[in-house]
Amino acid sequence: MSVSLVTKAANKKNEWKDWKRGLPIYLMIIPGLLFFIIFKYIPMGGILIAFQNYDPFDGFLKSKWVGFEHFQRLFQDPDFWQIFSNTLIISALNLFFFFPVPIILALLLNEVRHSWFKKGAQTLVYVPHFLSWVVIVSMTALLFSTQDGGINNLLSTWGYERIELMTNPAYFRMLYLFQVIWKEAGWSAIIFLAALASVDPTLYEAARVDGASRLRQIWHINLPALRSTIVILFILRLGHVMDTGFEHILLLQNSLNVDISEVFDTYVYHVGIVQGEYSYTTAVGLFKAFIGLGLVYLANRASRKLGEEGVY
Question: Pfam families, per this entry (predicted)?
């Protein structure tokens, strides 16, 4: 009996030592936990107003309950399918054109052998991430303004026609995609560079001994090392397929391109914030969330069947 008590006391003492040793890490976790609790979990209670005619004066408990009326209104809205298709097209551009760019960029940077050049290139491609969309769109507007834009003035001087980049709907999606790639590709490549840094150098040495070229090394060593990271990030990105970047699109949007630039994010702003229809736009947000959740579930299930780890 005494031996078991001594053993329990020793185990408790060891547990206390382990907890004390990990205390700095637990303290580092607290800000992240508070962020998610305050800004992610607590606001989920607001989903309730999607099923009410919410009145700020009556509050959550006294507002009139209307069930799925706002969802019916959304699906019966004549603009719904146009907005839905615009959102899907922009999301598809992000998935199929932007998503591979950081991977390619990381592979290219990983092949650079001169450290000074590699660091300089990384700095150049990281910097745009820290610029706000207001600055980027304003710079584009100044350069391509139809009347006095710098680039348009050069084109006119050389005998070419001016490009109506900001007002012609045909250029909207191309401009959006180019700006996203320029701003975020370098920053998004960091996680892929981190994955490549964990590759065992002896694999490259063995490949060189076997006569593998640099391209073969990328195909047989680097890409397999990135595969799980690519799969997980792709699944997570599918969860945001209905989120296209509110601030960016709102700044590019104008009365001439609104037919192809109106997406759910800007629609929620115009109807919910400007017009004050909080319950209806909460229903729109809930619809977006269900689409993202369904895609993540299906993609994760498919990845598990294909032998990948998936997200969960």
Answer: BPD_transp_1
Give pLDDT tens digits for 88-143: 999 999 999 999 999 999 999 998 888 888 889 888 999 999 999 999 999 998 88
Domain boundaries, the chain: 1-67, 69-305
Of 141, 145, 166, residue with least CA distance to 155: 145
